[in-house]
Amino acid sequence: xxxxxxxxxxxxxxxxxLFQLLSGLMIGGFGLFFADMSFPSNIKxxxxxxxxxxxxxxxxxxxxxxxxxxxxxxxxxIIFSSRAFFTVLASSLLLGEFLTPKQxxxxxxxxxxxxxxxxxxxxxxxxxxxxVALLAAASFGFGISNDSFMLKTFxxxxxxxxxxxxPALFIMILNPYTIKNMKVFLKKDVFIKMxxxxxxxxxxxxxxxxxxxxxxxxxxxxSIGLIGVIVTVLMAIVFLKEKENLAQKLLGAGFSFIGLLLxx
Length: 264
Known about the structure:
This protein is mainly α and 264 residues long. 75% of the residues lie in helices and 0% in strands.
């Protein structure tokens, strides 16, 4: 996504929506030819879950970009990592999926690691922009639990296709202005690079939702998913030579690795 940073400052939501639509179409196309794209025979009991998926991910994306417009990405990353706690809460209360004390300790260590690799100041504040970021975390945290429930009935590819496409279309319907400003991303050089990123993102999404479908505990998957933040920071150290607060970042990576061992 580094290539698109210049565009993101002006049109972050439009970029995300187009990115999500293209990825969803890729996933649906692959599923159509190489997997099972059939829907459940009785979809009526799943309507509420589909509505929740649409609302949670639609408003979650809006909250994300409203937050990023007003705060540092590193601070947002710290607050957004709390989505793991919201997944634990929803999965425990609604799905009966409880973490063991060891797994909960692992989750706490992973989140501590995310905080260490991103925090730049010991000064803590909590204002409107932080509340919006927390709403984004809650939306995605509850969404993951809902996904886990839905994937017990849905085939993988049709559900992931819907999870990508329907929220994006829902936002476009609510705010048609987003469609007008997408043409800048359809320029040949930009579009080709976007397609390549969509391929990688689609693979990541299929692997993540596959893990949700296979696992008996969505909270564990949500917690393990936070490791991606640590990997990104470590890759920036190695390939981009970002050595600022190196000891702090390595300590954060160490905490997260220990947490991962406890969870798995």
